[in-house]
Amino acid sequence: DDIDEVLKSEVESKIRAVEETLKGDDAAIIKTATDSLMQSMQKLASKAYEKASAANAAAGKGPAGGEAAAEAPGQADTVDAEYEVVDD
Fold first, then answer.
1. For residues 17 and 34, is the Cβ–Cβ distance under 8 A?
2. What is the pLDDT of residue 65?
């Protein structure tokens, strides 16, 4: 919800650019537009991850302490199972 508006508009613009390039048949232009979109999406994901990490740290959750760390030693809901890979 609280996405950086500049980054959001950048991603939306690049989505439209990819949609326009898909109307053509030049693979190089499509790849360039897609790569550009992917880079912007990675920036967006990185910002979202940073924000979520900061929120979890502020709430005392996550690997450094809090609820997640308290649950790890017991692992009461862990199921040990065996499996066999079958090739068709």
1. no
2. 46
For residue 63, give the DSSP letter: T
Q: How many CA atoms lie within 13 A of 3 on its CB side?
A: 16
- Mean of the per-residue pLDDT values of the chain: 82
| Confidence bin at 73 (pLDDT 50/70/90) | low
Total-model pTM:
0.59
Task: Tell me the two tokens of residue 75.
Answer: 């692992």
Q: What Rg do the C-alpha atoms of the chain give, in angstroms?
A: 21
Average the pLDDT over 43-51 and give the result. Answer: 88
Give the pair of three-digit tokens for residue 86: 């079958």
Token code pair at residue 66: 């809090």
Give the distance from CA 65 to its chain's centroid: 23
- Cα angle at 5 between 2 and 9, to 5 degrees? 130
Residue 51: count of CB within 10 angstroms of its CB: 13
